[in-house]
Amino acid sequence: MKQQLEQIKATALAALDAAANPVALEELRVKLLGKKGELTAVLKQMGKLSAEERPVMGQLANAVRADIEKKLEERKTALDAAALEAKLASESIDVTIPGEEIVMGHQHPMNMVLQEIKDIFVGMGYQVVDGPEVELASYNFTRLNIEEGHPSRDRSDTFYFNDEDSVLLRTQTSPMQIRAMEISEPPICILAPGRVFRKDEADATHSPMFHQIEGLVVAENITMGDLKGALITLMKRIYGQDLQMRFRPHHFPFTEPSCEMDMQCHKCHGTGEVDGQVCSTCHGEGWIELLGAGMVHPEVLSNCGIDPEKYSGFAFGMGLERMAMGRLRINDLRLIFDNDVRFLNQF
Ligand code: PHE
Questions:
Q1: What is the pTM assigned to this prediction?
Q2: Is the CB of 197 under 6 A from ligand 1?
Q3: How far is 59 from 302, CA to CA, in rounded Å?
Q4: What's the rounded Cα separation, in Å, for the pair 262 and 285?
Q5: Which 8-state DSSP code applies to residue 1?
Q6: Ligand 1 binding pocket includes 131 (Cβ within 6 Å)
Q7: In angstroms, rounded to a whole number, what is the distance separating the alpha carbons of residues 137 and 139?
Q8: End-to-end Cα spacing for the chain
């Protein structure tokens, strides 16, 4: 038995020395020391030995086992170290290679201008609100005093969703006036920016989708002076203190009286001519239309359960694209929607 044990030890150590990787090492461990291993097989025969021999052999067997375990441990450490060495060598990092530049985007120019406008109105106490783009015809038209048969309700101008023409893509942000008055009591002071949709062919100044910013103020003793004050403040903040503006009488079914606000053309300074040619920015008008506005029609207040004897209000609706084009000197509306980064990066 002694010989047997010596033999096991000698082959085991040699095999361990030859083991080339951790997997081979693990297989050897099982083969040598496991329950079905060679050493265990020898130990099972201990019972056949005499009482004197047994402790001697037991000691020897333990010593062989300890030697094998020690060798295993050594080989494992050596193989792990070699594996780490190889990994480090193959994964070498060159810390001097320049990094790849990450291209940072920024706000779309139209959102920049929207943000400016919102900031100005928030500073005047307005609350910014949001509403649905898919709207009921009753909000978009009827309750705004736009009666059946009005040309703006025509199917050639408005995108409808059903045969009864009762659900549509809003053609203006004015339905937000109704929604605001419906859910709150005066004083009301809101700004409602958002997308609107009309069946327009796209050209330099038209697009089937564009943005409006609706404003509504309803309280006691609100006058046209308040309307003019708010809008003049806005335009001077956006375009500069020297801006020349004018209010022209106009008609909207939901305001009375109604007006449009123009600013003097920044290109021809109101003359309508540039170098003897008709100014291309204002088409010779000298003025650029900015928005529609007026005092909320008493009928519209009543439609929303607000007493027109007690309260009055003003409303306005401006085109965001037009404001952005004026503010950033952009001459073609389509550039705003093309999302060509060569254009966008200029702002
Ligand atoms: N909704 C009108 C339009 O789209 C603009 C407007 C808003 C006019 C509010 C008066 C009051 O032309």
A1: 0.72
A2: no
A3: 108
A4: 11
A5: -
A6: no
A7: 5
A8: 91
Q: What confidence tens digit (pLDDT) does each residue in 292-341 have?
A: 999 999 999 999 999 999 999 999 999 999 999 888 988 888 999 999 99
Long-range contacts (CB closer than 8 Å, 24 or more residues apart) made by 137-142: 137/165, 137/166, 137/167, 137/168, 138/166, 139/170, 139/175, 139/178, 139/179, 140/168, 140/170, 140/171, 140/172, 140/174, 140/175
Residue 328: both structure tokens together: 């950033």
d(CA 55, CA 62): 10
| Closest C-alpha to 270, from 292, 246, 305 | 246
**CA 294 to ligand 1 center in whole angstroms:** 8
DSSP 246: E
Inter-helix orientation angle 2-18/53-90, to 10°? 0
Q: Is the pLDDT of residue 194 over 90?
A: yes
Query: Which DSSP string corresponds to 185-196?
Result: PSSEEEEEEEEE
177 vs 304: CA distance, rounded Å? 9
Strands (E), 106-178: 127-128, 134-136, 167-169
- For residue 292, report the distance from its CA to the centre of ligand 1, in Å: 5
